[in-house]
Amino acid sequence: MRIILIPLLLFPLLAQAAVLSPSATINTVTAQRMLTQRIVKAYCQQGRGINSNAAKLQINSSITQFSTQLSNLFESVTAPENIEALKKQETQWQNMRTLALTPPKLETAKQLNDIAEAMLYDAGELVKRLDVSMGKPQGKLIRIAGRQRTLSQRLAKTACLESWGNQNPALKQQQAQAQKEFSANLVTLKAAPQNSRPIIEQLDLAEMQWVFLESALSGLDGHADKNIASTSERLLEVMDKITNQYEKLGN
C-alpha cells in the first residue's frame, strides 16, 4: 500500500489569518494605506539608486505585510459594504504587487502611483466607516496617528518621484498638502486628553523627527534624497509606536 503524504505547508496562510478587534482593524487599515505609499517610495528609491538594497527589502517586507493584513481584514469585517471594499482592494493589490516586483522604470512608477492613489482613497473611506462603527474617541486617534504613518511615506514618495523626473505639478501640491496636514495632526494628537506619559514622549520624538524631515524636504539634490529616505523611515517607526499605543487604549 502506498502512503500519500499531504504537505502541510500548502495551507499556512489559512492558519495565519486572525480576527482583529475593532481598534486593531482600524489600525490595520491605516497600515494598509501607509504600505501603498511605502511601496511606491521604495520602488522610486531603487530607480534613483538611493539606498537600493534597503529599498528592495522594504518592498518585499511591505508586500508580505500587506498580504497578511489583507487576510486578517477579511476575517474581521462583517458589513457587506466593507467586505466589498476589501474585494476591490484585493483586485487592485494584485496589480500593484506585480508591478512593484518589476525592474524600476519611471513609467512603471507612475502606474504604481496611480494604483496606490486609488487604493489610498478607498481604504480611507473604509477606515472612516470603521471609526464610526467603533464609536470611541480612541478610534479617531488611531486613524489620525495611522494617517501620520502614511504621510511620512507619502512625502518621501512625492519627493523621490519628482527628483526622478516626474514633473507633474500635482506632486508639489500633494507634498504641500501633506506637510500642512502632518503639522496639524501633530497638534491634534498632542492635545488628546487620552495621552499617557509614554505617548507624550513618543509624540515629542515625532515632532523632532518631523523637523528633520521638513528640513530634508527643502532641497531635492541627491544628498537631500538620502536624508528624506532615512528620516521618513525614522518618523514612520515613531508614528507606528504611537498608533499601536492608541490601539491598546481602544481595546
Q: How would you portray this structure in words?
A:
The chain has one domain (21-250). It has helices at 12-16, 22-48, 52-76, 80-100, 106-134, 137-164, 169-190, 197-216, 222-250. Helices cover 82% and strands 0% of the residues. The model is unreliable at 1-15 (pLDDT under 50). The protein has 9 helices and no strands. The chain is globular, with a radius of gyration of 19 Å. The chain has 251 residues and is an all-alpha fold. Residues 1-17 form the signal peptide.
Mind telling me the C-alpha Rg? 19 Å
**N- and C-termini, Cα separation:** 54 Å
Give the % helix. over 70%
Which structural class fits the helix and strand makeup?
mainly alpha
What is the strand tally?
0
Major pleated sheet:
none
Mean pLDDT: 91
Shape: globular
The unreliable regions are: 1-15
What's the tally of helices? 9
Number of domains: 1
Strand content: under 5%
> Helix and strand succession?
HHHHHHHHH
Keywords: Signal
Signal peptide: 1-17
